Amino acid sequence: MIYRVAAFYQFAPLADYRELREPLRALCASLGIKGSVLLAQEGINGTVAGTAEAIDAFAHELAHGEMFGGRLDNLELKFSTSEAMPFGRLKVRLKKEIVTLGDAAADPTRQVGTYVDAAQWNALIAEPDTLVLDTRNAFEVAMGTFEGAVDPGIRSFGEFKEFAAQQLDPAKHRRIAMFCTGGIRCEKASAHLLARGFAEVYHLKGGILRYLEDVPEQQSRWRGECFVFDERVALGHGLREHGLREHGVRERQKDASADE
């Protein structure tokens, strides 16, 4: 059986996020969907899997159903497949942030960097005055990244603030192009840099997953595999499963599962 996997997020005011938890859990259970969903006052973030019909019904409810009342009208949603169910159970959790940075000034509902589609990404990162920045954790970067990208060397996304304070300078780094797995960390990171006075901040729309889906392998500037937070472990071009299991990947996946 082939399962459909949906990775999704949107920053949107959800003042009633606590009340949404049980209805959302019940919807997923009724559709036989497993995976992880985070709810916070700032929005929703998750990756779930099920049959194609179940995932279609779930996605339709998020974007168009009564549960969210049209508040998720700009949902960033990506689909891939798995030959086995990539999640053991369903988790719907309440959080302070849907991706943890710990900076109240970094509010993607007010300002974010400039989105760059996968088709335009290669040209942007090839420009000599562009600092290409990987915002993911160090072990993710070690598995794969874009040519010439800077690895911030962080263990979790919450450390990005310290990296930016110590290593990035608005006067020196006039143009920054950042990327992450699905796009959500870049939303927070770009909002953080803009709040600190950086003038030109770009981020890859839909993240690495969208790039690997849309850009032909022969034109790609991606090298290696893209770590994902489920049992598939890593994906390559065309979002093909790589399933790397060695080098303690499973333990690090568990430790970092809230980052994306």
TrEMBL record:
PROSITE patterns: RHODANESE_3 (PS50206). Residues 126-220 form the Rhodanese domain. InterPro entries: Rhodanese-like_dom (IPR001763), Rhodanese-like_dom_sf (IPR036873), TrhO (IPR020936), TRHO_N (IPR040503). The keyword tRNA processing applies. It catalyses: uridine(34) in tRNA + AH2 + O2 = 5-hydroxyuridine(34) in tRNA + A + H2O. Pfam families: Rhodanese, UPF0176_N. Its EC number is 1.14.-.-. Keywords: Oxidoreductase, tRNA processing. The keyword Oxidoreductase applies. Belongs to the TrhO family. NCBIfam families: PRK00142.1-4. Catalyzes oxygen-dependent 5-hydroxyuridine (ho5U) modification at position 34 in tRNAs. This is tRNA uridine(34) hydroxylase.
